[in-house]
Amino acid sequence: MSRIEHYKDPNAPKANSLVPAASAVILDDDGRVLLHRRADNGLWSLPGGVMEIGESIGECIVREVREETGLDIEPTAVIGVYSNPNHVIEYANGEVRQQFSVCFRCRVVSGDLAPSEESTALRWIHAANLGDVDLQPSIEIRIRDALENPSAARWD
């Protein structure tokens, strides 16, 4: 695997990088959350990724969701800013990135679900069934924040 998640791991390597990113909690009409299986580590996660120079964080999440799922979305609210220094992502090239992600609640505008080179599978799942998938460690927190406290943003 080219990406290893370390969440509250006392043996995790020290961060040497901080990169802005975005993630999306997208709900369907039945209240299910859209997850994608990451190609780089095989874990289930929310769609999202790294912000590029020249785009806003809102443009970032729209682009990333389209790339990973085939869907066009509209961000409707900020769920939170997740920057816990105890969540680092280790890459094969030696980068150890401290998590820094703005998580958005989003709605689908158009498009058809389609996996990509970044997403090996896509799945709508009820929050009660999150334990049935191998989920990235911090993702369940974002989903619960979105579902349990929709009017208040978290600043972690």
Short description:
The chain is mainly beta and 156 residues long.
Provide a descriptive summary of the structure in words.
- The protein is mainly beta and 156 residues long.
- It has one domain: Nucleoside Triphosphate Pyrophosphohydrolase (Alpha-Beta Complex), CATH 3.90.79.
- Helix content is 15%, strand content 41%.
- The protein contains two helices and twelve strands.
- The protein has helices at residues 57-69, 139-148; strands spanning 3-7, 17-18, 21-26, 33-38, 44-45, 48-50, 71-82, 87-91, 96-98, 101-111, 119-125, 154-155.
- The strands form three sheets. It has a five-stranded mixed sheet, with helices on both faces. It has a four-stranded mixed sheet with strand order 1-8-9-2, with no helix packed on it. Strands 5-4-11 form a three-stranded antiparallel sheet, with no helix packed on it.
- The longest helix has 13 residues, at 57-69.
Give descriptors for this structure.
four-stranded mixed β-sheet; Nucleoside Triphosphate Pyrophosphohydrolase; mainly beta; 156 residues; five-stranded mixed β-sheet; single chain; 2 helices
Please specify the SSE layout and strand pairing:
Blueprint: E1 3-7, E2 17-18, E3 21-26, E4 33-38, E5 44-45, E6 48-50, H1 57-69, E7 71-82, E8 87-91, E9 96-98, E10 101-111, E11 119-125, H2 139-148, E12 154-155
Parallel strand pairs: 2-9, 3-10, 7-12
Antiparallel strand pairs: 1-8, 3-6, 4-5, 4-11, 7-10, 8-9
